[in-house]
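user: Kindly work through both lines:
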Amino acid sequence: MTTLIPAPTEPKIRVPYVIAYSGELRTDPIWFGKDRYGRRLRYMREARGDWNEYGALRARVGQRRNGQPLWRKLNTARQWRCMEKLLCQVCGQPATCEDGRIPWILTDRVVRDDDRDPGVKFTSAPPTCLACIPEARELCPQLHGSFSAYSVGGVGYHGVLADMYEPGLKWEAIPTGERNVEIPFVQSYLLRVALAHQLLVRLSNLHPLPISGPS
């Protein structure tokens, strides 16, 4: 009698809270409507939550986490929620420590220094709670090389990463080909022609965390 040996199953990997799924992508039509200042990018059928308080038009996404995980893409709504509420990008729970400081792990791809203040950094990467940092280091390929880890004391909104558009002859929205453009909120004229995908924050009062180096 032949004994059937079940095939080994691959271990399930937890998909970080901030990662987008294929079933969440949306392509709601956008165009250039008119307001008292001229033309500006907007959805054809506007909805609550399209705009943030600084006037950035946010890309619409679903929230069901259905389909396949898109490991290189962040869900716009969850990325903003993590930044605004200081939630861990892995588990989605509050990342703030008991002392009020927030742990943050950063790679060169998602951070840059403030030219006017060397002690300040700008990033699109949400925080990572202390409990999830070991898992993040093990599973994220970007953290297998060099990265920096900080305990952050100050967080402020800086701007967005956005795709740029220009109006066509019939006010249709035509992509310019410029993607992931950094737009500070003070440059409101650029926000009028941009579809924002990620929120950028300003990190200050940074203290190094002793977990740097490859995993």
About this structure: The CA atoms of residues 104 and 127 lie 5 Å apart. The chain has a mean pLDDT of 91. The chain has one domain: 19-208.
